[in-house]
Amino acid sequence: MSGDPNAVLAAIDRWERAGLLDAETSARLRSEATQTAGMSARRLSQYVLATTAAVVLVIAGGLFLEWTWPHLGPGQRAGVLAALGLGVIVLGAQLEDRRRWLPAAYLMQIAGLFFMIAATIFSTDAWADETLGGFLSGTVGLLVTGFFGPRAMRRNVVMPAVHLACGLVFMGLFLIRGTPLKGDDVMWAMDAVLLVAVLGLFRVLAKNTGGERHPWALNAFVTALLAGFVMIAGTWAGPLDARSEAMYPMDLWLGIMASLSLWGLHRGPDWLQRAGLEHVVTFLMLLWIPFGLITAVETLDGPPEAALILVGLAGVVGFVYAVRVEIRGLMAASALAFIVSLWYWGVERGGTLGAVMALVATAGILFWVSGKAAGMGRDASPPAVSG
């Protein structure tokens, strides 16, 4: 059922006209839908105001930094950033405990983690790598995520994934600031850390019967897989020095993520099928648009038809699948993939009569398919209602 109150009321009117509901039941449903819509609007306004207040607080912190920055030394700047970040995280965690302004609480904790990352980066002006100051500045972020990460696992499904992503950044900064590892060695070490995280989260998910024991694990697992794109690109272009072919492993990783998501949607346990994996599939289709174009144009150095095949064909397949399983977001993403690939092909083949005719023919086919789909919808019989 749509979350739009007007759509709900229109559906009630339609069911009443069709004789599926009597007048009394229809009136009660309209009253309940109207009350729920009012509560949702008030809750949304509360969230918007609270989130705005959180943003204003972060801006105030930024203005404070701008005012104090010229008067501080390098070490003091790093210390102020770290203290400000820790204070914002603590305040956001306290707001989260009240369960009233969750979006604002999450936003403040994320902003605080970014302040902590900035503090670690600015600490390089005060203390060199592999010194006591460098070691301590690289350790602070790990301690923060090590404390607040497990705490978030017991409270929500959002912040554990954020702590995982920021924790990977903090780990990389710690390896650079506090250990003798540099360059390629840091990249390999980060690959090992991410691999351990992915395998550990997969094991947690496998034991998460019913999805109730560790509800945070799925978001964290998806975040770890998304972080894999960064690690793969960095490893391929860094230690392996294969910049021109960096898209191949990234395309493969995207395919693995898509396969896992589709498995979860159709073959996974019931709780996993209801976990919102359709949004992940939609995001991956959007991600495939630049990935596919870069692979076709830069890596393969192919003609415009290669982009049309890689991206456009994926869009067609994705759209057919989305219609069959009724995923609206994937329909839009797949249509965008087809349009972008066709547009690129048309621009590259511009000025040729064949390209113009192909585009016109494609538009005609799409209009025809759209008309057939609408006709099928009109001919479909309404579902039988028991009782």
Keywords:
disordered C terminus, mainly alpha, 14 helices, 387 residues, 80% helix
Question: Tally of extended strands?
Answer: 0
* Biggest pleated-sheet summary: none
- Whole-number mean pLDDT: 83
Spatial gap, N to C terminus? 21 Å
| Unreliably modeled segments | 376-387
| SSE ordering | HHHHHHHHHHHHHH
Specify the helix fraction band: over 70%
- CA radius of gyration is 26 Å
Strand content bin: under 5%
Structural class: mainly alpha
Count every helix, treating DSSP H or I runs of 4 or more residues as helices: 14
| Large-scale geometry | globular
Description:
The chain has 14 helices and no strands. It has 387 residues and is mostly helical. Among the domains are: 46-153; 276-371, no CATH class. The longest helix is centred in the N-terminal third of the chain and has 46 residues, at 23-68. The two termini are 21 Å apart. Residues 376-387 have low confidence and may be disordered.
Present the secondary structure layout.
Layout: H1 5-17, H2 23-68, H3 74-98, H4 102-122, H5 132-153, H6 159-178, H7 184-206, H8 217-237, H9 247-266, H10 270-273, H11 277-299, H12 304-325, H13 328-348, H14 353-379
Helix pairs in contact: 1-2, 2-4, 3-4, 4-5, 4-6, 5-6, 6-7, 6-8, 7-8, 8-9, 9-11, 11-12, 11-13, 12-13
